[in-house]
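Data availability (excerpt). The following record was deposited with the supplementary files.
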Amino acid sequence: MEIRVDRERCIGAGMCVLTAPGVFDQDDTDGRVIALTTAPTTDQGPDVRAAVQMCPAGAIALLGH
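Predicted structure:
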């Protein structure tokens, strides 16, 4: 599984950070998503999938899941 984030599409809602804090953070400057890793562990998978579903802007995608 590989994470792709579209910072231009991100609206800074922060749902990803609340759902998977070990995988996502928000930029201190503009509040947009930052992926702390592009390859989450198996244990992080369920939280990452939930974060993708909860993103109101559709700014997070999973490849190879």
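Summary of structural features: The first strand starts at residue 2 and ends at 5.
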